[in-house]
Amino acid sequence: MRRDADAAEAERGALLRFANSDPLTGLGNRALFQTLLDEAESRRSGIDLIAIDIDFLKQTNDLAGHDAGDALIVAVAERLAASAGPLATIARIGGDEFAILLEGEARARLPAVRQMVMLSAGVPMRHAGYDLTISICAGHAASDYGDVSIARIFKQADLALYSAKAAGRGCWRSYDGTMADAATARLRLIGEARAGLDQGEFVLHYQPIARLDGVVAGHKALLRWQHTRLGLLEPAEFADVMSDAAIVPELQAWMVRTAMAEAARLQAQGPELTMAVNFAAGQLRGIGAAVAILDELALHRLAPSALVVDVNQAVVMGGSLAATIECLECLRDAGVQVMIADFGTGSASLVQLRDIPANMIKIDPCFIATLSDSASNQLMVRALIDLAHSLGKTVLAEGIETAAQSRLLRQFGCDLGQGALFGQPISLDLQLAAAE
To answer: SS3 for 56?
Structure first.
């Protein structure tokens, strides 16, 4: 009977370990962490809690496969375990998320964990022929008292993680009270954006896109928010709204509908004028998304060639890569122009750039800003233009502000330009009035 009882107890222990373990990393799982969150508040000592997020995991899965993504997760888990030590409780609580609980003597390992995170940015790793990058962000919160719930401290660590991710890759942030204030302000702004979308506060302004001889070839639609309290805002001033997964699809859909309707009005200036519109990843998934865009063009009696789908490399290369490529191929084959932004600054390889179904390339403004003053920058821009042309792409330079920049770009063979030299972003009514 004693042997049977011992065997049953061992089996229960094994089942409990299995239920609370992550099969990939061998660390704790979300169920284990949730048990900690549900614990009573009273403890014998204070705690440190670190929320961890792996950078670039989605891109790794899409470009190198899920085996490579799993290898990246395991590599991060090993580094977390080594730095946190055997007394720490570590759990993988999501696909790319971990949590570390340091209590009692384990709190002495906090500096080692912080150092590991801050030294993680850009650490190379090779797997199955692919060059991967280990990089993580972390948010930390602490309590020196035993009567504060772990759930409360985790919420603070999560706010700190949000701040770390906003600061860049491989960042560490510790919670302070201003983060709660910032989170409240962020939620308020997102709520105001939802109301503002319903009340017509969002508008589009249009900046000319011109040939380098100054002849206008089209316009770029740029989102603005006429906020009742803060005045006219550009997207950088409401970045928290543009990162909210709930409202961004509505804003993007409104932007496309409005841009197409106003493009039809601008066609009166010249049927060859194009309209460039920024597209998000969610709008470019599969043939169905392409058909929806083409239907919107047809609704406003616009030829497919009137639209320029402006999309950055991160959108094309991240997320559902195959579905995005399928959508862009369909649009390009129908006559829509596809333009890849941030050319020369993104992480895509030349092979990937070659295979992206785009017929236009946009050179980032960072190359144009010092063009007149830097011989090395001139060589780089000329090389970018030559490379794009060798791939059969039309080249647009963004951020042209001076005649000297325009002359140099024209000498280098650049096709189109956008910037203050050719006109500031203004409303459609002002555009039409200026054309009269």
So the answer is: coil
Which among 390, 280, 274 has a CA at the least distance from the CA of 327? 280
- H/E run at residue 147: none
The pair phi, psi for residue 205, each rounded to 5°, is -110, 155
Task: Round to whole Å and give the CA distance between 435 and 404.
Answer: 26
Are 250 and 198 in contact by the 8 Å Cβ rule? The answer is: no
Output the six-digit token pair for 97.
């998320």
CA 347 to chain centre: 13
Measured distance CA(151)–CA(43) in Å, rounded: 13
User: How much is the average pLDDT of 130-141?
Assistant: 88
Q: Contact, 311 vs 279, CB < 8 A?
A: yes
- φ, ψ of residue 203 in degrees (nearest 5): -135, 165
The pLDDT tens digits for 374-386 are 888 899 899 989 9
CB 26 within 8 A of CB 73: no
Beta bridge partners of 341: 312
Listed in order, strand segments (DSSP E) in 313-355 are: 337-343
pLDDT band at 11 (very low <50, low <70, confident <90, very high): low
Instruction: Give the C-alpha separation, 98 to 261, whole Å.
Output: 46
| Nearest residue to 276 via CA among 154, 98, 396, 146 | 396
Give the whole-angstrom CA distance, residue 71 versus residue 250: 36
Helix residue ranges, H only, 147-247: 150-167, 177-198, 239-242
Say if residue 71's pLDDT is above 70.
yes
Which two tokens mark 285? 């998934």
Among candidate residues 411, 405, 436, the one with its CA nearest the CA of residue 422: 405
pLDDT greater than 70 at residue 310: yes
Q: Please enumerate in sequence order all residues whose Cβ is within 8 A of that of 167, keeping only pairs 6 or more positions apart, or say none.
A: 173
Q: Cα(230)–Cα(376) distance, rounded to whole angstroms?
A: 42
Query: How many Cα atoms are found within 13 Å in the side-chain-facing hemisphere of 8?
Result: 5
**For residue 384, which amino acid is it?**
L
What is the Cα–Cα distance from 235 to 7, expressed in whole angstroms? 63
Has residue 140 got a pLDDT over 70?
A: yes
Coil, helix or strand at residue 394: strand
CB proximity list for 76: less than 8 A, separation 6 or greater: 52, 54, 98, 134, 136
Pick from 196, 143, 199, 136: nearest CA to 171 = 136
